[in-house]
Amino acid sequence: MTASTLTALAAVTVACVAANAFIVVADLSRARFVLANSAEVGLKPTTLPYRAALKGAGSAGLVIGLIGVTQLGLAAALGLVMFYVGAVGAHLRASVLHTIGFPLVFLVLATGSTIYFALVMASWP
User: Fold this and answer.
1) 13, 49, 66, 108: most buried, per Cβ within 10 A?
2) What gap in Å lies between CA 42 and CA 20, rounded to an integer?
3) pTM here?
4) Could you tell me the residue ranges of all domains in the chain?
5) According to the 3-state scheme, what is the secondary structure of the chain?
6) What pLDDT was estimated at residue 123?
């Protein structure tokens, strides 16, 4: 694995942290677009704090992983992948395809973060 590949994947991981931090704030502030999208896919507004907590925990885990606790970073990245697979599934189940791009972007970022931490762990002696 080249250093430039790892650097690019580290940048993807930082972008994943930033994107999830943004959406946590949007969830907790009950932003109009969050409420509208949640209603379209059939999720009650009462679930917002729980979804925000999961995304926030994932984001915090990625930061801790970037600081040096790589195993926690990998676990957090995998948790975010599972969360966003569920989000894409919710969009598909509800046939809400006009906003499916958002969870797909988050899924791609989380997958890139997973690959980053897996590669870092694979390079351990």
Assistant:
1) 13
2) 21
3) 0.94
4) 3-122
5) CCHHHHHHHHHHHHHHHHHHHHHHHHHHCCCHHHHHHHHHHCCCHHHHHHHHHHHHHHHHHHHHHHHCCHHHHHHHHHHHHHHHHHHHHHHHHCCCCCCCHHHHHHHHHHHHHHHHHHHHHHCCC
6) 86
**41-80: buried (b, 16+ CB within 10 Å) or exposed (e) per residue?**
bebeeeebeebbebbbbbbbbbbbbbeeebebbbbbbbbb
Residue type, 22: F
**Mean pLDDT across the stretch 104-123?**
96
Within its chain, how far is the Cα of 67 from the centroid? Answer: 18
Distance in angstroms (rounded) separating the CA atoms of residues 114 and 63:
13
Cα separation of 75 and 66, whole Å?
Answer: 12
The Cα 45–Cα 49 span in angstroms is: 9
